[in-house]
Protein 1
Amino acid sequence: MPTTLEELADLDRTLTRAEINGDIATLDALATEDFTLVGPVGFVLDKQQWLERYRGGGLHTKALAFEDAVTRVYGDAAIRVGRHVQQAEFQGRPVDGEFRATHIAVHQSDRWRLAGVHLSPIGGPPPFAPPREAQRSES
């Protein structure tokens, strides 16, 4: 029997394959009815809008990876934070990128389902972090 971490990793692998294949039926089954995506520039999509990106033919994902995920499980809820790396086109324009991603999953009906995804651009260190030189000299 797979562990919770294995089940969550499998959810992410299935999501990735479904996005690359534009598999709306699988994406629909993976996501909760109240699924929400927050995109990398702050737009918000509900489940139907998220699925419509493929249904309408506007989004074509050529490659996608969810990497370096760190997982926290809280009973029937889990948070996975990692890197979302994509090669894709939306309405003929490239939307390639690397983003920090948070996947929110809930355990429903004996399986894990995706309740939300939040993508953010990956930047440098936070403005309140000490400069790297100061960090090295303190070591």
Protein 2
Amino acid sequence: MYGRGYQSGGFGFGPPVTPPVVKQLLIANVAIFVAQVLGVVPEMMFAATPADFWHGYVWQPFTYMFLHGGLGHVAGNMFALWMFGSPLAMVWGPQRFLRFYLLCGVGAGLIIVTLPYLTVQLGLASPFSLSVPTLGASGAVFGVLLGYSLSWPDRTIMIFPLPIPFRAIWLIPILLFAEIYFGPPNVSHLGHLGGLLVAWLLLRGHGDVGSVLSIDHWKYRWRRYRMRKRLRAVDGDDWRDRNRQGPWLH
């Protein structure tokens, strides 16, 4: 993904600096993935599985987010963490960023192991769903993506290889649409939505981002959108009026 705003007036690839806290998270995730591939880490013990969690495996909502289902899975999550987490860590500081990242991941993990259990108890789902494991850092990463898009909503970004720039505020809707219609069938939508929910609750308490979540802010953006639309309509009418006069002769 490319972005505009790190340097004034230009496009750049990736953040200019990778903060130590982001580097440490990248190293931890990659190291655990290698141990997982080598069989050192028993995947089924540390993935988030509702049936196991409710039978005593209470560590799973934390450990699941350091496991991944393949090289592409870990590479995609780590790329997003590096790309969008680095600016947040530089602005927020390491403690706030790490706390936010872990709470989004653990919160999403708790939702992953709790909601299926409740739906089974209510007779709305098959008991088979309780034995399906979930792994990956996507819940925490989606929380980071929300934090980025709300911190810099007007920053222009572009998803490679599609040369279509858009504002960061549309990042989450675009990714959710893409994963629903084009993603693999085993994507944990519950984990992604859980990470977004926890991130939204955490961000509401901070003035630097919380104002973007207010109703007044979205009323202002709607008024600005309508004003720009009217201005474009007026400019279009002026252009058509000038063209009706015919070309200038000299």
Protein 3
Amino acid sequence: MTTSISSLSHQTLAVLGGSSGIGLAVARAALAEGATVWAAGRDPQRLAEAAAAAPGLQTAALDIADPAALAAFFERIGVLDHLVVTAGASLAAAPLAGLDFAAARQAIEVKLIGSLRAAQQALPHLRADGSIGFTSGMLARKPTPNALVKTVINAGLEAAVRQLAKELAPRRVYAVSPGPVDTPGWSFPDAASRAAKFQQLGAGLPVGFAASAEDTAAAYLFAMRARALTGAVIDLDSGAQLS
């Protein structure tokens, strides 16, 4: 009888955006299961720190917007079982009337186009039973004032999941949609301010807390193991869409 995958042992995983936050949590959790893990990101210093904190982690500095760098990265890895893309771009909230289209274009290029470009470049190396995991966000389906560009990016990725799950079958394609997650992507003046903000955010969520990077990483590991899961978006948002 065929059973679902119970471990990532002896599989090869690439995480783009893997130098910190959710991506690094995914990389570390997969390493703990015995996977060979490659983490890529733009910041060499962060990558060095990630490698020091996670023995066995392979790293590569690259820009997700650079097709040649992506192609060389996947060529270096060889055969790939799973691709996870958590890379994104910072973008300030703004109403349409004051939208900075240059900044919007850059954010779209990094997260939306970058995710699709990474999938395209990984495809020749991805096993037929492998998976591609994107990262969307609750704004894709929860309209929020002054978040037009983030909404467009995340909704675009979720639409791509459904399309590519059919186009790339039997390879599986999914997305994880986080809510507020305590990662270095948030900027606070000090640790006390950060803790207070996340305590406040968590108090307003159905589960009573904001998910950690490790909480969120669990959704990607589940999706990589679940051989019948494709074309789906996993909401791992502490119930934020219900708030």
